[in-house]
Design a protein that fits this description.
The protein is about 40% helix and about 10% strand. The protein is α+β, with helices and mostly antiparallel strands and about 80 residues long. It has a domain of about 35 residues. It has a two-stranded antiparallel ribbon. Strand 1 and strand 2 form a beta hairpin.
Length: about 80
């Protein structure tokens, strides 16, 4: 089941980012269980990998679903 509107805790969102950035192919079981249940990650022989649903969830932003600000290099609006 994939639910892009599902609330994520800060720890769940951080774990999803870690898997996406390949910083961590193994995260705490309670976090991986939740993200697997939501369809945001999947298990492979190489470890955890992010799914397209997980990438879309990251694009939606932080735990409150508001868009995350992008850093602007060298300029202030």
């Amino acid at each position: 089941m994939t639910r892009l509107d599902e609330f994520l805790t800060a720890a769940e969102f951080d774990a999803l980012e870690q898997v996406d950035e390949a910083r961590n192919r193994s995260i705490a079981k309670n976090l991986s269980d939740r993200l697997l249940e939501l369809g945001y990650i999947e298990e492979t022989p190489a470890g955890l990998v992010i799914t397209s649903a997980g990438q879309m969830r990251l694009a939606l932003g932080g735990t409150d679903l508001s868009p995350r600000p992008h850093s602007s290099k060298g300029g202030v609006a």
